[in-house]
Amino acid sequence: QSVLTQPPSVSGAPGQRVTISCTGSSSNIGAGYDVHWYQQLPGTAPKLLIYGNSNRPSGVPDRFSGSKSGTSASLAITGLQAEDEADYYCQSYDSSSYVFGTGTKVTVL
Amino acid sequence: QLQLQESGPGLVKPSETLSLTCTVSGGSISSSSYYWGWIRQPPGKGLEWIGSIYYSGSTYYNPSLKSRVTISVDTSKNQFSLKLSSVTAADTAVYYCVRRPEWFDPWGQGTLVTVSS
User: B44 in helix, strand or coil?
Assistant: First the structure.
């Protein structure tokens, strides 16, 4: 059972902005641990999308942005594109263990 | 470019031990900056961290799996390995090997391990 909660699904039309929340607690995100985000395209391994709350690895479009506040974090996708249709996971640290969010499926309408 | 590749049996019988190896290419597993580890994903479900190892042999395991997990490293072969004992159907998953500073990157392509008699 994951300690980081994400909405099961979000959707948007091409060009729109969508956000994915990652809700934790005082023992993980609220304790100051960083949040990282991964994108998993269908049938593939997850890929690092955002690290250290808001940093993009080389090659990740600036349409993707991350933020953190209190016991929660968010991933925003602006200018939604068809190739953004995937599962997204947040990740942090809690009680001697690395933990993942429940995952969110993004659908491009 | 660093690449990780998992290998091992795709089918394991219940109560037996699952064994996987990750081969690292394009970089040294003895880098002082990184840990190396395993993550799994049951079919249609989310991600679960299994554990990590430093090139010196220091290990960190998910408390929920700690009693059944052993991760080891072979720096001469640039490989690290996972053993998960007393497996059940609940251990059926795609197993990924990863590199970790505090986030996981890169990931291997993953290997499906099915627990079934």
Answer: coil
pLDDT score, position B66: 96
Nearest to A100 by CA among A38, A12, A15: A38
pLDDT digits (tens, 9 = 90+) for B9-29: 999 999 999 999 999 999 999
Query: In this structure, how many other beta carbons lie within 10 angstroms of the beta carbon of residue A93?
Result: 19
Quick check: B103 contacting A, CB < 8 Å? yes
User: How far, in Å, CA of B44 to CA of A3, rounded?
Assistant: 19
Coil, helix or strand at residue A31: helix
In a 10 Å sphere around its CB, with 0-12 CB exposed, 13-18 middle and 19+ buried, how is residue B67 labelled? Answer: exposed
Q: Which residue of chain A is at minimal alpha-carbon distance from B40?
A: A45
Per-residue pLDDT tens for A47-76? 999 999 999 999 999 999 999 999 999 999
Rounded to the nearest integer, the mean pLDDT of chain A is 97
Shortest distance, CA B9 to any CA of chain A (angstroms) = 19
Q: Given B46, B108, B110, which is nearest A102 (Cβ)?
A: B46
Bridge pairing between strands B11-12 and B111-115: parallel
Residue A12: phi and psi, rounded to 5, are -165, 160
